[in-house]
Structure prediction request, 200 residues.
Amino acid sequence: SSYDTETQNLPDSEGGLVAYDFGRDSGYVLPYDDTALRVTSPDDVNNTWFNTYFEWVKNKNGDDILQPKKLDKPVNWVGRYEPRDSYYYLFPVKPSMLSVFQDFVLQYMKWDTSAILKDETGEYTGRRIDLGSGGIKLDIGYQADDQKISFSKHLYEDDKPEYRPMVKAIADAFNAELASGKHQEHFGTIVSETKRIRGE
Prediction:
């Protein structure tokens, strides 16, 4: 519960797992930190995520108790490709990630800096970078307040068949670099929705 919590007492994360024993009609909550457990979306909370970060252990009474795993090192951040709209998102990222990702896209496409068609910042739209060459146009957006980079075909380009596999291929290639441990220093901290609403 955060709506009735004083601002100075708000945690950065407000998520938790409830372990419930039906036989005894009792349960307990394991709060978790979104940043530490890499929860960027409710879709992240699945079996793979659960098995990565939690485990069942026996207590002294022989009961199964759910507890967080002690990992040797944090799991590397990766981005999220959304097939529904063919967008790739990086979150939560620092401003420094923008140039890293832009350079990666240029290199992947074998474009030089002449392919930067537009680079502008709007009060409500954030920073927008248009890249293009040879009839292909791509968009990179950065919202500082949301700590999010978005990447897709150019907004006003027709949805040509080649765009979706192209965006996904770039997303997969950058995720492979991230999964190997590269660029992790450009990720930030997830701030709870309540803190964001309150402007913390």
Strands lie at 15-21, 26-32, 54-58, 64-68, 80-82, 87-90, 116-122, 126-133, 136-143, 148-153. The CA atoms of residues 5 and 11 lie 10 Å apart. The first strand starts at residue 15 and ends at 21.
